[in-house]
Amino acid sequence: MIITILIFILAYLLGSLVPGVWIGQLFYHVDIRKVGSGNIGTTNSFRVLGPKAGTLVLLLDLLKGTLAGMLPMIFDSHINAMLVGLAAIIGHTYPIWLKFKGGKAVATSAGVLLAYNPSFFLLIVLVFVLTLLISSMVSMSAMVTFTFATLSSLYYHDWILTIVAVSLTIFVFYRHRTNIVRIKNGTESTVPFGWYYQKKKSTH
């Protein structure tokens, strides 16, 4: 029982690590919570700090999710890795270091999935990249990818994966509610590539 509690606490603390904020403050003297969208994750890090820092934040956010998902194996426990990963996702969204005001947990969720089911992770990454190349919007890509993950999880006949996928999809849509409004209004931020970006650029 003590090991189980320890695993969940460690997973939460791993998820609570905020590389976007720390890298911005340490190397760029910028608090990304006060610039751009104000989000602490990958997209805002790319936008505010640049591609090198953004890539590093992406990898670190992925890594903390993966490490959290591997904790049951490290401690030789039979706890489902996906359930442990949820603690890391909660940690990223509500980090103790930032007064419980965190990010949208897209990269951290992907990291947990990598630890839980690598082949499914690769499929999800492919869907995300293809959607991004079409929509040019990270928010749109995230919502489409999580919806796809929920539907395709049924193929694996893994009820824990499906329940977690459904829960995360609802949560991701909730966290992106302001993005949904901007998408409807045609004012959502885009990445500087992809079909939609090129189309929008050619009309101006």
TrEMBL record:
One of its GO terms (cellular component) is plasma membrane. Pathway: Lipid metabolism; phospholipid metabolism. The keyword Transmembrane helix applies. It is found in: Cell membrane. The keyword Nucleotide-binding does not apply. InterPro entries: G3P_acylTferase_PlsY. One of its GO terms (molecular function) is acyl-phosphate glycerol-3-phosphate acyltransferase activity. One of its GO terms (biological process) is phospholipid biosynthetic process. Probably interacts with PlsX. NCBIfam families: glycerol-3-phosphate 1-O-acyltransferase PlsY. Catalyzes the transfer of an acyl group from acyl-phosphate (acyl-PO(4)) to glycerol-3-phosphate (G3P) to form lysophosphatidic acid (LPA). This enzyme utilizes acyl-phosphate as fatty acyl donor, but not acyl-CoA or acyl-ACP. Belongs to the PlsY family. This is Glycerol-3-phosphate acyltransferase. It comes from Leuconostoc fallax. The lineage of its organism: Bacteria, Bacillati, Bacillota, Bacilli, Lactobacillales.
